[in-house]
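README, section 4: Worked example with a bound small molecule

Sections 1 through 3 covered apo chains. Here we extend the same pipeline to holo records, where the ligand is supplied as SMILES alongside the sequence. The molecule in this example is shikimate-3-phosphate. Nothing else about the input changes; the structure line simply encodes the ligand pose together with the chain.
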Amino acid sequence: MPAKALSGRLKAPGDKSVSHRALILGALAHGETRITGLLESEDVLNTAKAMAALGAGVERTGAGAWTVLGTSGRLATPDAPLDFGNSGTGVRLVMGAVAGSGVAAEFVGDESLSSRPMRRVTDPLDAMGALFETSDGRLPARLSPSKLHGIDYTPPVASAQVKSAILLAGLSADGETCVHEPQITRDHTETMLAAFGASIDVRRDGPASTIRLTGPQTLTACNVDVPGDPSSSAFAIVAALVTPGSEVTLTGVMDNPARTGLIETLREMGAGLTVEPGPDMAGERTMTVTARASTLRGIEVPAERAPAMIDEYPILAVAAAFAEGTTFMPGLAELRAKESDRLEGTAALLRASGVDVETGEDSLTVHGAGPGGVKGGGRTITHHDHRLAMSGLVLGLASREGASVDDVAMIATSYPDFFAHMAGLGVQLEPA
Ligand SMILES: O=C(O)C1=C[C@@H](OP(=O)(O)O)[C@@H](O)[C@H](O)C1
Ligand SMILES: C=C(OP(=O)(O)O)C(=O)O
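The generated complex, written as structure tokens:
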């Protein structure tokens, strides 16, 4: 049953990437870091537990308010495996943060995380002198006490997690660590390291970036007011665009060009979006975004834009299903290495509801059915993937027959308030 229009105003949930980093940098720093607006999702809470197990004093003082008493870089040996649940960001960044601390640690995760590639971080960290043992490149992984030296490295995949792991390891390594990114990825680690007092040099050259820091360095505690998450905001934005009569406003959304590829893409598709500047938070600009139901048209999304919207392709594909014409999305090989194979998962989600989709090795093509043209009736198989779950539910809202998902539990890994926020916008989603 298609839902009625969405309307209302929401404060965007805290950004997941900034939340992980606030806890990790706070734990490495000297002094007490106060965090407000922390995203209290399962992924982030697992990082909080890991940093506590590594010796930081991590305390919740109110809703979204946390203090982290840092270790001044002297991490403790955890007495149990560090369990990161579903979170690639948590495990990969903490591997980097712990690598040169001289402690031993074991890293584990859930079924989805245990199937994801870890050599992309353990290879460069081992080249810095770390002693990681993985299970054929996957979790569980074990670190033996290690001493690091700097590295000059160009990651073979565009990945902020890989970049961040190396930079965090560089803090405890002897000498210069340099990361070259041919295509810039989200730059929160660089921005936040500088805010925590690191001496770090970031040079931009067109789409490329080179980051240098010389270790060892100790960070200084810094208060972090977490801005809103553009990736989570995408669900309400697209829901409003494709559901006739809707208008929703999201406030406090982080406005960082390495994160806002979806806004640019939706505008090219003809979306009725109004963006107004908001206050700066944690060194980031924020914006208020208003989305109105619109007739979208299919476009070709530039492959180079993928890093700036890598988590948004499933929900973009849903928008494309309601567009007139074809949307071609190239440059998506990385989607196969997320919580699930998101390229195939997204295609299956759309096909189950009657949308005509093609997948290539690294591309997705959606032949839009136009406003009101998506039949619906499909059931999304989520494969432990929160973004497929939320995308399947948004598709159901505006399709003729509605749609269901097999499991909503994983939504709590990134957006625990998803159902409450959708209810606040006037739509009750029923877990099926
Ligand atoms: O650094 C981060 O916070 C993230 C980086 C991205 O992963 P990759 O680095 O694997 O692209 C993204 O998909 C993830 O949700 C968060
Ligand atoms: C890919 C994601 O997260 P992670 O890699 O941290 O599991 C995501 O949130 O879409």
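What to look for in the output: The pocket of phosphoenolpyruvate (ligand 2) is lined by residues 43, 86-89, 311, 338-339, 387, 414 (CB under 6 Å). The chain has two domains: 7-14+227-424, 16-225.

Section 5 describes how to batch many such records.
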